[in-house]
Amino acid sequence: MTGSGPTSEDTKLAIGVDIGGSGIKGAPVDIAAGEFAGERVRIPTPQPSTPEAVAEVVARIVGDMPAGRLGVTFPAVVQHGVARTAANVDDSWIGTDVGAVLAEATGRQVHVVNDADAAGVAEARYGAARGVAGVVVVTTLGTGIGSALLMDGALVPNTELGHLQVEGYDAETRAADSARERENLSWADWAKRLQTYYRVLEDLLWPDLIVVGGGVSKKHQKFLSLLDLRTPIKPAELRNTAGIVGAAVLVTEQSSTAG
């Protein structure tokens, strides 16, 4: 946890911000309900998306929001607040303490998490994986394949399961939704690739549930029924709100753990 800004007296409210390559979105979140407690604000991601430029946008987004802790998703491997990679943001983020930069810009306590991990936590708390014990894998199918791994609801961060080697390929280059669009694959042909990918996940992790998120999950009827897996597989429920909600949940839980 970084920063020493004001905190909300109402522990059921936190602020979530989702930093993406094209847009930065934020909203206050009612932690008890897992829903937005106010209007979502979106500002295009500045180009170049340097730490200084992004931090200024985040500060604008949260400036008029209620006092409270700030949870932020970031498109990178994030270890203890530090970005170790950079996907769809400027490479100058690599090695940067994201939490410290955003805490200074916003004057709030900040907790930073990988974007797919935030979505996974949101699904575990409020969505398709709510109440599921054991091992849950949440995958987001989009430009790449993001992943979150949870054990009895506890997050194992930065799993990067979209980069598994499957049949000699980085999995996301063949099975992400972008591959379906780029190669103009039919739903049936894409499902064959998903089948191969998810079978590898099954054999490695033996999950109790797989949840499929990303924008394409809105069309889950077109492809999930074509998969033949031993693991139950469900579409995500929170979809576009998952990153913001998950980030807000995690900053609240981190604060509780820290006392």
CATH architecture of the largest domain: 2-Layer Sandwich
CATH class of the largest domain: Alpha Beta
Query: What do we call the CATH topology of the largest domain?
Result: Nucleotidyltransferase, domain 5
How many strands? 15
Average of per-residue pLDDT values: 94
Can you give the helix content as a percent range? 25-40%
Q: How would you sum up the major sheet?
A: 6 strands, mixed
Structural class: alpha/beta
Provide the succession of SSEs: EEEEHEEEHEHEEEEEHHHEEH
CATH superfamily of the largest domain: ATPase, nucleotide binding domain
Instruction: Assign an overall shape.
Output: globular
Which band does the percent of strand residues land in?
A: 15-25%
